[in-house]
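Reply to dn_fold:

You asked what the input looked like. This is it:
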Amino acid sequence: MIWVAFLVMALVATAFALFPIFRPDTAAVVRSDAIPAVLADQLEEVRRDLDRGLISAAEAKAAELEIKKRILSVVRRTTSEEHGPGAGGGRAGAILAALFVPLMAFGYYTVNGAPDVPALAFAERAPERAEEARIVDMAQQLHDRLQNDPNGGASEGWMLLGQTYMRMQRFEDAVRAFETVADRSDATSATWSMLAEALIGANAGTVVPRAEAAIEQALEIDAMNPAATFYAALAESQGGDDAKAYDLLTTRLTEANGYAAWMDSYVARINRLAQETGKPRVAVSDYASEAPRGPSAADVAAARDMSEGDRADFIRSMVDRLASRLEAEPDDLDGWMRLGNAYKVLNERKNAIEAYSRAQELLEAAAQDDPRRQIVEKALRDLQG
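and this is what came back:
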């Protein structure tokens, strides 16, 4: 019975494909009308990204040049096709395609397919889809529990829900979760900076006035909040003051006490601003030389010329150095997380679990809304699962 349904659908699809061809007084859709319009939209998108500060002026100029080249190429190619010897064969080709494609698809599916057999690629993603569905279900359960709590739900629960929504890119939902806590007396600087991040995400990367207000509140509670300072710099940059954004970020780096994970994002943003302002580029080692995150530029350059065996020994030596340093500095939470990730990359599951477990112990003294909790917990679940 299902094959009869498939045949009917194929015939209907063929009829829809042939109808415009035989319909009298119907103007053909010209490719040159459609594609340049799409490319023109892309050109506008590049300009909007430049205005929002998402790309640099040099990047915007290069993108605009490439899109304009593609528009010119399409127009020239279409003009050639319209006046070329094969211009009259379009209708015949469309008729053949409309008839041949359904027949070919029917034959191929008869030999290689079956309605009750899932596609391999789709089947292979089953664990990933199951995990996504589980996260969605858990988020909904947490939301319902908090919403139905007569006391309004614990602030820690709302913060966890907001962070979960952020990972799911449900920014509007994250805003509502963080705002619930922001209205309470126990709201922290992190509460306000996470609210700012959610608002920025909900507005396609733009620091809107509501986000600016949240940033100001976060910095008023804790002037050293690195996330709030980063978004304050982003607001300055989008407002056209790249120099002030550069100074905000570099000043905060000078106030850092040793290496922290957020410093990498700062350095990347600073060096992007350096291209626009002509100010000097920086490196993490300029501010936290005692605790480098990874190999130096010289180490990377040397590794390129090594054999596979030598490169493996080189990587092992860096991991061992980090492990030795952590034995002497056991309270370095970020260091244990880096070591756990390194062991994970090296497929040393037992060592990775041990390193992440040490990080988890240190996190007991951290704030409940510390995002590193989720990273460590997920890593341990993946390793132990």
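The chain has 18 helices and no strands.
Hope that clears it up.
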